[in-house]
Amino acid sequence: MSVELSASPFSPWQVLAVHERRVLRAGEYGACASFVGSMRDSNEGDGVVSMELEHYPGMTERELDTIEREAGERWPLLGSLIVHRVGEIAVGEPIVLCACWSAHRKASFEACRFLMEALKSRAPFWKKETLASGQTRWVERNTPGY
């Protein structure tokens, strides 16, 4: 189980490969489900050029650790990973990576979705968008997980 906040852009696929090599044993898992969320260029009908993602240091990491622990209690995971950006984020950059490893796909898929939905509803992050018009606004609600 691993949680990381990053103030710099990251390559989700490189992070996954490094994590697998460092933390998991080859042949130990049969499935890895991952989700990557990226910065869109629009929200609520307006063009967006960037976003400032604020968090409460210590509190944010604790909540993400709790979410990961809950996933590990609900599903037979061999590992999980959450990497989340903070600070200034440009359009197209990855914001979040969630991944879960297990012996079989069902646990990986379900746990990965749980991580992402719990993170979106519980983790203390605040988003401030800079619109194409130059105005800024705080994002008041997350996109539903449908």
Task: Summarize the model shown.
The protein has 146 residues and is α+β, with helices and mostly antiparallel strands. 32% of the residues lie in helices and 39% in strands.
Q: What is the N-to-C succession of helices and strands? A: EHEEEHEEEHEE
CATH superfamily: Molybdopterin biosynthesis MoaE subunit
**In the residues, how many domains can be counted?**
1
Class based on secondary structure composition and strand pairing: alpha+beta
How would you name the oligomeric state of the polypeptide chains in this document? single chain
Estimated share of beta-strand residues:
35-45%
> How large is the radius of gyration?
16 Å
Stretches where pLDDT falls below 50 for ≥5 residues?
none
CATH class: Alpha Beta
Tally of individual helices: 3
> Largest beta sheet, briefly?
5 strands, antiparallel
Number of strands: 9
Characterization of this structure:
- The strands form two sheets. Strands 3, 4, 6, 8 and 9 form a five-stranded antiparallel sheet that branches.
- The protein has three helices and nine strands; from the N terminus they run E-H-E-E-E-H-E-E-E-H-E-E.
- Helix 2 (59-74) packs antiparallel against helix 3.
- The protein has one domain: Aldehyde Oxidoreductase, domain 3 (Alpha-Beta Complex), CATH 3.90.1170.40.
- With 146 residues, it is an alpha+beta fold.
